[in-house]
Amino acid sequence: VLAELIEKFVSHLSESRTDCYFSTGSYKAMDANVKKENLSSVQQLGVEMTVRYGKYLNLLKEDAENGLCFVLMNCEEFLKQQQRTVVSSLNCLQEHYAGYDWFASSIFLIMSGDRERTLTFLQQFSRLLVSAFLWLPRLHLSMHLPVTTVEYGIHPVYFCSAHHVEMLLKAELPLVCSAFHMSGFTPSQICLQWITQCFWNYMDWSEICHYIAICIFLGPDYQIYICISLFRHLQQDILRHTEA
Hints:
There is one protein chain. With about 240 residues, the protein is an all-alpha fold. Helices cover about 60% and strands about 0% of the residues. It folds into two domains: about 140 residues; about 90 residues, no CATH class. It contains 13 helices and no strands. It is globular and about 55 Å long. The protein starts with a helix and ends with a helix.
């Protein structure tokens, strides 16, 4: 039901010129026979974890690995069309996105391992503003960002979403804010980790689905509110750890 709902919603918005924040060219999917060996070691490890988790949730069948590799390779090729060339020694500014694509993997699970359906959804989704915040590889070396922003290698999620979380945390949860200040960590570091991993390993699968759906339906600012609500939920644990 969730898959159908987000599909219809995103399809409707992507057909509206006023809702399309990013322009995307046409892209035809590559050969379906993509093997795991074509991916980086980080991606291969991510594929294994995703397939294992998907089978545990009874969402994926035995042949799911090839389907996920197909999605990841095509996403990389599709997004490459909208990247600029930057000469830099920073690992995060090399041609390939340095991490694993947790958002595309989450959509693959929501679509029960249907690779064509997943890829079609992601292509339509990439036209919307919310894709910049939910799908981190979306803006990797992106020509949609000012060149100076790209060269710094800092993702907009860090200086937009995570920055606003810190601003709100001061007002909403001053004790948590102080605890972070005393620890030498910043809340934005934790938020970036949560968001990059699409909350995998932090929330249950149903809650991850809620996070994705809420941000798609209500807007990317809900990413900030969800982080704040998590800090509120964890407040007593954070304060107890600070005292210890």
